[in-house]
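Could you help me review a protein record that somebody else here produced? Here is the record exactly as it was handed to me:
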Amino acid sequence: MMKIINLRRYYQLDTDLFVEVEDEVAELLEKSLKADKAYDARVSYHNAYYSLDVGDGIEGKAIKPVESAEELYLKAVAVKELFDAINKLPEKQRMRLFRYYIEGMAETELAKKEGVVIPAISKSIKKGRKNLKKLLKKD
């Protein structure tokens, strides 16, 4: 079913703008508006107003510094070197490192999945890190 809403209620518009939207969209906009009002009420109640002119360092936390082109390039080169080194590892080490560090799989879970003992997984991960370190130093 469709519902007609005034977008001025949800956005900072100068004039009324009526549109027809699905009921789910209208409900979502209403929930968002209520959440914003609740947040504003909490800020007001706790006097949690901040100024970037205070000099307490909050602006450093609020504003993410823009990286220079050189920094972005160096980061991209480092990521490429890391991926190249990872791809040079033996398949088992590469997959175990991926599952352990990226997927967050525990050693016991890995051992159970592969049908091997836990020390074999531990040793493989340790050796994979060592090989990765060597490959990165070599490049």
Remarks:
- The chain has two domains: 1-65, 69-137.
- The beta strands are 2-6, 18-22.
